[in-house]
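Me: I'm a chemist; would you kindly supply a protein sequence with its structure tokens?

Assistant:
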Amino acid sequence: MITAIVLIKTSVDRIPEIAESIAAIESVTEVFSVTGTYDLVAMVRVKEHEDLADVIPGRISKIPGVLGTDTHVAFRAYSQHDLDAAFSIGLDG
């Protein structure tokens, strides 16, 4: 699984609508509204590296109100949260 962190500049007056449109994209797992230089941060998870092109420039960048993106591809995940989620699939409790 390939994870990309996508920093997104948007039209400020449309942040909620743009965030909802991005969140509706199949490979987008989370969208956060943030402070700072960017307006939104999206977590994108795909099976193949080439799939990033379909999701980021192919879908996210084409949403009206998205002004630009800056994408960072993750090499490794060190978060215990991610590891716990992977091993708890299908378990109760």
About this structure: The chain has one domain: 2-87.
